[in-house]
Structures are given as structure tokens and as C-alpha cells.
Amino acid sequence: MSKKYYPFIDIMRIIASLLVIAIHTDPLTSFNPQLNFLITRVFGRLAVPFFFMTTAYFLFNQGMPTYAKLKSVIKQFLIIDICSILLYLPVQIYNHSLSFEPIVIVKDLFMDGTFYHLWYLPAVIIGLLILYELYQHLNEKTIFMIVCILYMIGLAGDSYYSYLHQIPLIEAFYTALFKICDYTRNGFFFAPMFLFLGAFLAQHQWNFKRYVLIFLMLVSFMIFFIETLLIHQQPIITHDAMTLSLPFISFFFFSFCLTFQSSKRFVLYKDLSLYVYILHPLMIIVVRMMGKLTHLEHIFISQSLFHYLAVTGFSFIIAYLLILLKKGGKIYGYHQKTKKLDRN
User: Fold this and answer.
1) What is the pLDDT, as a whole number, of residue 339?
2) Tell me: the pLDDT tens digits for 233-272?
3) From the centroid of its chain, how far is CA 78?
4) Domain range summary for the chain, segments of one domain joined by +
5) Which of 13-27, 90-104, 109-123, 131-145 comes out lowest in average pLDDT?
6) Crossing angle of the two packed helices 191-203 and 246-258, in degrees rounded to 10
7) Distance of alpha carbon 194 from alpha carbon 280, whole angstroms
8) What b-and-e string marks burial along 292-315, b requiring 16 or more CB atoms within 10 Å of the CB?
9) Helices marked H in the chain
10) Distance between CA 91 and CA 303 in Å, rounded?
């Protein structure tokens, strides 16, 4: 019997990468700021949790991973992280954002990322190490309590900082915390929650009907949407990546994705989505340079939708070419049917 795959997860990898690009380019600000807000600040905030959950799900879907398997996954992310740091090093030098202060180096490497989107890579590594160690010593309920506490600490320094910073003790705590990280959206406070949810779904079979999951998604999404609107009414927001309802909508949505099973999968999409995630800020720079060099700033830069499409197009083209180069000119088709176990 052939192995079951989850093609909808592969498709969602691409959609999530498109949403991440949208967050960083605001594609509809020239036409409809309200719709742009919905896409970037609501739908867009589901993308990174989805990536975390996907990583954990396929790491834990054969049971508790061995240390060797964990080490292999972390090594892959570490190599990608180092290559990404080197890729954006010239950009940092050019825009004078490179610092050699020890505290800044530590923050950039382990917390914030050396470029604004690269926080995700150390966050995956740190989050997986935390989760794996917790599983080695504690039961699942205790682990869940710990990741909830970590998430709540992050939440209070993120979307809810505006509500809580006036409390002296809380303000003092986060003043000290923000000396070692610019945001609480990192591998210590953000990643463990969604990695745990992915691992949890991998180890437990849920038999919810698809229509039940759709209902739960719609309810949790409406709560998530209202919460996001309320958060953005506040005068001070350190960030808006973490909300109370985000884990719920992420859990139900990922569960919904798992209901689509097949003997086929979209093999290419895993690497393509990762490469696009890494490359798209560089393509933003390229598109802006093209606009200035051709004196077409009103099209390449000011026209938000064209800017988004140009960045997206270049990101996918370059990503595909790099994968083609990596594979020696051979890439699987859109899907592959196989009985062999792959890494997803």
C-alpha cells in the first residue's frame, strides 16, 4: 500500500509564502487599504504558524523522533540559516545595519535574525530543541502548560503590550527582556506553541468531520479577526504577530488540511516555498532598484499591486532556478507517486 500524503499542505506552503510576501509589500494599499489589512494582518498572520506546525508534524509523524533525526533536521535549518546570513550580509553592509556589538550579534543570531525575516530560522532551531527536551522529561499535559506560559509571556510583549505596559512590574520585566531581543516573536516564546501543536496532531488521530472543522475554523477566525481589529486600535503595538486566538485558528486549520489525503503529493512545493521565503526581501530590493534605474518608480514601487507581483515573480523564478541548479537540472514534476518514505 502506498504512503499517504497531504497535498493540501503542499499547496498551503505556496499560499503561505505568498502571504509572507504580501506582509512585506502591502500589495493592495494603492487600491483598498482595508482589504490589504485583511490580507496582510489577518490572513498573513496564519502563514508562519503554519510553517512551524508543518515542520513539527512531519518530524513527529512517525512517533517521537530519535536524537539523530532531530539533529539532522536542525543541521538542515542551521545550514540554511548560515547561507541566508551570508546572502544578506552585503545588504547589511550597504545599508549600514551591520553591527559588531556583542549584544547585537547575540540578538541577531538567536532572536531577531540578521535580516528582518530571518528570525524564523533560529526560531525553528531553538523551538525544536526546547520541545524535544521537554518531551524527554515531561508528560504532554505539562509540556502544553509550559508552551502556553511561554506563549503568554510572548503575547504580553507583543500584541498586548499596549494593555499591560503601564503596570510597573510588567514594564520593568519587558524593558529588561527587550535588551536581548527586539520582539517576543522568537524561538523561546512564539515557536514552541506552534511546534507543539504540530507535534500533537502528528501523535494523535483526530476524527473530526470536515464540516465540523470548517465550522470551528470559521468561529475561531471571526474571533481572531475581531481580536486583530481591537489590537490595532491601540496606540502602542510592539508587534502584532501573536494573539490569543491565533493558536486556535492555526490548530483547526491545520487539522482541516490533514483531512485531504492522497497517494500523490506536490514534491517541488516544499523547497520552493522555503527558497521564496528566504529570497523575497532580496527581490524587493531588486525591484526597487529596477524602478529607480528605469525611472519607473511609479510602476515598480508606488503601484503596490505591480510591486507585489514583480517581487513574487522574481522570487519564484530565482527560487526555481536555484532548485534546478541544486538538483543538477532535474526536478520532480508537480506530483510524485511512490511507496518510499520521504521527509515531507
Assistant:
1) 40
2) 887 777 889 999 999 999 999 999 999 988 788 888 999 9
3) 16
4) 1-25+263-344, 32-262
5) 90-104
6) 30
7) 24
8) eeeeeeeebbebbebbbebbbebb
9) 7-25, 33-37, 47-60, 67-94, 102-107, 120-137, 140-156, 161-164, 168-177, 191-203, 210-231, 246-258, 267-293, 297-300, 304-326
10) 24
Tell me the three cell numbers of residue 6: 497531504
> Angle at Cα 118 formed by Cα 50 and Cα 157, nearest 5°?
75
Amino acid identity, position 257: C
Q: Label residue 186 exposed, middle or buried (CB < 10 Å: 0-12, 13-18, 19+).
A: buried
- Can you tell me the distance from the alpha carbon of 24 to that of 97, in angstroms, rounded to the nearest whole number? 18
Q: How does strand 336-337 pair with strand 264-265?
A: antiparallel
For the ranges 87-101, 182-196, 304-318, the lowest mean pLDDT is seen at 87-101
Q: Are 184 and 206 in contact (CB under 8 A)?
A: no
Q: How far apart are CA 249 and CA 162, in angstroms?
A: 23
Burial of 48 (0-12, 13-18, 19+ CB in 10 A): buried
The grid coordinates of residue 55 equal 515542520
Residue 2, Cβ density class (10 Å: 0-12 exposed, 13-18 middle, ≥19 buried): exposed
pLDDT for 342: 42
How many residues does the structure list for the chain? Answer: 344
User: Three-state SS for 78?
Assistant: helix
The C-alpha atoms of residue 176 and residue 168 are separated, in whole angstroms, by 12
